[in-house]
Design a protein that fits this description.
By secondary structure, the protein is mainly alpha-helical. Helix content is about 60%, strand content about 10%. It is built from six helices and three strands; from the N terminus they run ααβαααββα. It has helices at about 5-20, 35-60, 75-85, 85-105, 110-115, 135-155; strands spanning about 65, 115-125, 125-135. Strands 1-2-3 form a three-stranded mixed beta sheet. A hairpin with a 2-residue loop joins strand 2 and strand 3 (about 125-135). Helix 2 (about 35-60) crosses helix 3. The two termini are about 20 Å apart. About 30% of the residues are buried. The mean pLDDT is about 95.
């Protein structure tokens, strides 16, 4: 699997996270939305879930993909604490991204990428996906939708006039 787009999506997300962290006056998120650390905590959990699915498939085991733990605020806050805050979260996501790209790019066969995984993806208490999804589509979905969406979410925390409106 070519992981160039996935690597780029993680790099862009982490660059946005640094930009927000270095901003003298980040914007507070709207009520019910996440701040930068919560966004990164969520991304860390989603990446860990993806790594777990990839690892299970490469081990010949059955697996599922369920993002509910990555939406749980208590779990997100715990990840933030365990990582030591923003800088630790950025490093954690960076290392997880390297691991996922290495596994997906170097070790997965076409048969493994085509393995259909029972998947439940929620957003704002709404099921977006509740069906079998090929493992390769779960990985490419990070690059094509999940990570760019959270990059935009991070950049929305920048004061007006300083946002890069062209970010994916």
């Amino acid at each position: 699997m070519d992981t160039a787009q996935l690597r780029d999506a993680y790099r862009t997300l982490l660059d946005a996270a640094v930009t927000v962290a270095e901003s003298p006056v980040p914007v507070e998120p709207p009520p019910g939305e996440w701040d930068a650390d919560q966004i990164l905590g969520h991304v860390s959990l989603v990446t860990a879930t993806t790594l777990a699915a990839v690892s299970a498939i490469t081990a010949g085991a059955n697996t599922t993909y369920d993002n509910r733990v990555a939406l749980d605020t208590w779990t997100i806050d715990r990840v933030i604490r365990l990582a030591g805050g923003g800088a630790g979260l950025r490093e954690r996501v960076h290392v997880q991204a390297d691991a996922l790209c290495a596994l997906a790019g170097a070790t997965l066969s076409k048969t493994e990428l085509d393995t259909r995984v029972p998947t439940l993806l929620l957003s704002h208490d709404t099921a977006l996906v509740d069906q079998l999804v090929p493992l390769g589509d779960l990985i490419s979905g990070l690059a094509e939708g999940e990570l760019p969406g959270h990059t935009r979410q991070l950049l929305a925390l920048m004061p007006a006039g300083t946002r890069d409106e062209t970010a994916r």
